[in-house]
Amino acid sequence: MTAAPDFEQWNATVLVAVERALESWVPADAPAGLGQAMRYAVLDGGKRLRALLVMAAADAVGATACAQGRDAALRAACAVELIHAYSLVHDDMPCMDNDVLRRGKPTVHVAFGEAQAMLAGDAMQALAFEVLTPDDGESAVDAVRQARLCRLLARASGHAGMAGGQAIDLASVGSALNEPALRDMHRRKTGALLRASVQLGAACGDLAESSPAWQALTGYGEAMGLAFQIVDDVLDATQPSDTLGKTAGKDADANKPTYVSLLGLDAARAEAESLLVQAHASLAASGLSEAARAPLALLAERIVHRIH
Amino acid sequence: MTAAPDFEQWNATVLVAVERALESWVPADAPAGLGQAMRYAVLDGGKRLRALLVMAAADAVGATACAQGRDAALRAACAVELIHAYSLVHDDMPCMDNDVLRRGKPTVHVAFGEAQAMLAGDAMQALAFEVLTPDDGESAVDAVRQARLCRLLARASGHAGMAGGQAIDLASVGSALNEPALRDMHRRKTGALLRASVQLGAACGDLAESSPAWQALTGYGEAMGLAFQIVDDVLDATQPSDTLGKTAGKDADANKPTYVSLLGLDAARAEAESLLVQAHASLAASGLSEAARAPLALLAERIVHRIH
Questions:
Q1: What are the pLDDT digits (tens) for B209-232?
Q2: Which candidate among A44, A251, B198, B251 keeps its CA 20 to 30 Å from the CA of B301?
Q3: Global confidence as pTM
Q4: What are A79-95's pLDDT values in tens digits?
Q5: What is the complex's ipTM, to 2 decimals?
Q6: How many helices (H) and strands (E) does chain A have?
Q7: What is the CATH code of the structural domain delimited by A4-305?
Q8: What three-state secondary structure class fits A211?
Q9: Helix axes of B49-60 and B212-238: crossing angle, nearest 10 degrees
Q10: pLDDT category, A286, cuts 50, 70, 90?
Q11: Whether pLDDT at B138 is above 80
């Protein structure tokens, strides 16, 4: 098993590569301040968990052993970060969550105005698909892989995935969502993109979607998608705003159902631990070597045991 | 040359096919009302000019002679209509144009609320890329074509195209944009997607981007993109709201620069006619037969001589 110091180094290397790539792909010169708003929204921000999942999965299936696979994985990692960042920009707007603080900074609509925030989000979504479809001159990523990555990302972010989950979230304010309904909402809202991150990484290699390794990685991604949200709810209920870098307790204040409000704190924590066990079991069943799957295993630990 | 009755029949056939395809691809069952909002925004609506341009260009290059090309063209036509429709939904919102009437109906945020309108627009953008990347089981459109269509659509709708133009538009309120700046804005805001419509259709065939026919069709698309907006400005200044199906005179009221405010009505009309001549010249230089390019020629006439 890869030792923790190796993991930290791997992690740091990925973060630098992703930041550098986003830096080069998110245009500073887009007209009328749009580029600045996009860069503000996506650069320098967040844990890059989705990008790390893409890269860890791509490494696990051996995709990054060749230059084409490395480029594909980096593009997929940046594309999924662009989708995630656009969703936060739109989610923070007054007509949605009306949040003024994100990662310790004023949210995009506070800094740039609502109209620019909406446009920046829209342009970031388009940019995600641009990044996945480079010209022959820009990249060696072949068309089959490009189309497959676009397919996975579009399905995870649209009506059946992230956007659909947000619509359920919107409709759930003040309602009595039961646990299965809450689970369905989060499976779409947060889970779909986290699961897709793992699949995007795996799709940079040559796994067929019917292979046991693909199925196992998908199972891992699903468990982590749900665990992430449960831990989010636990942290929202237990940590102060300055630790989270965003306004704590907002969901409870807005009378939104959460895992904590439905299950209680202890049961929510236990559920997250049980999903971690499931994730490890999926990895063990993947047929990938222990060394190959180590970064995914360590990311799972981090997702469940993080404190912000 | 195709006679006008043939064109009307071609036009009617395309509209039925596009409506039927959108009807099947825009999900009625997306959660929490999201599907209804998406369908309200895109079904039954508009002139479908972009879809007609896609189909006319695909026909012109012979792409629709085979089943794969026909499916690709229909998918591209629906994808571009989804992008156009999402941009209208977001553009109509209070933080942008704050318009309450569109195609004679309440705008999406009036009918469904602002948050749902924003999500519906977001999900429609994702759906456009879903439609372009069908699974093997759904469609015979090959991956090379899928990736190429995604590439064209993403670039036309993002920061360098439509969203960039909207950002300039936003920044231009009350400002003294000169004619080149206004042209640049519209080349992106409206022109990029209209030009891309022609390119998407052409990309359903086997034209290389370096071929004279591709260049000629791109020139045609560019001329029509700009002409469309100039005619829009002329109509906005001369037609009542009930003819337009939207609130007339809004740009002038908002102190936004338009071709009419910059050039005057007569010069704006003359500019549109001159772009029509350019479009016909591009078609004549394409190397395509007169019969093959007839629908594009007739669409150009309609764009410039429409009255709403």
A1: 899 999 999 999 999 999 999 999
A2: B251
A3: 0.95
A4: 999 999 999 999 999 99
A5: 0.95
A6: 16, 2
A7: 1.10.600.10
A8: coil
A9: 160
A10: very high
A11: yes
| Cβ proximity of B225 and B217 under 8 Å | no
DSSP letter (8 states) at residue B97? T
Half-sphere exposure of B240 (CA within 13 A, CB side): 2
Specify whether the CB–CB gap between B18 and B78 falls below 8 A: yes
Does B265 touch chain A if contact means CB atoms closer than 8 Å? no
Question: Of A22-31, A173-182, B11-20, which gets the smallest average pLDDT?
Answer: A173-182
First to last CA, chain B: 27
The residue of chain B with its CA nearest to that of A118 is B90
- Three-point CA angle B283, B287, B288, nearest 5°: 70
Is the CB of A189 inside 8 Å of chain B's CB atoms? Answer: no
What was the pLDDT predicted at A2? 44
Classify residue B133 by its DSSP letter. S
- Burial label, A253 (beta-carbon count in 10 A; 0-12, 13-18, 19+): exposed
In Å, how far are A169, A191, B122 from A188, measured between CA atoms?
Answer: 10, 5, 15
- A277: tokens are 């066990």
Count of CB atoms situated within 10 Å of the CB of A78: 29
Is the separation of the CB atoms in A199 and A218 below 8 Å? yes
Chain B positions touching A163 (Cβ under 8 A) are 34, 119, 122-123, 126
Which residue of B122, B151, B167 is in closest CB contact with A163? B122
- Backbone region of residue B245 per phi and psi (left: phi > 0; alpha: psi in -120 to 50; beta: other values): left
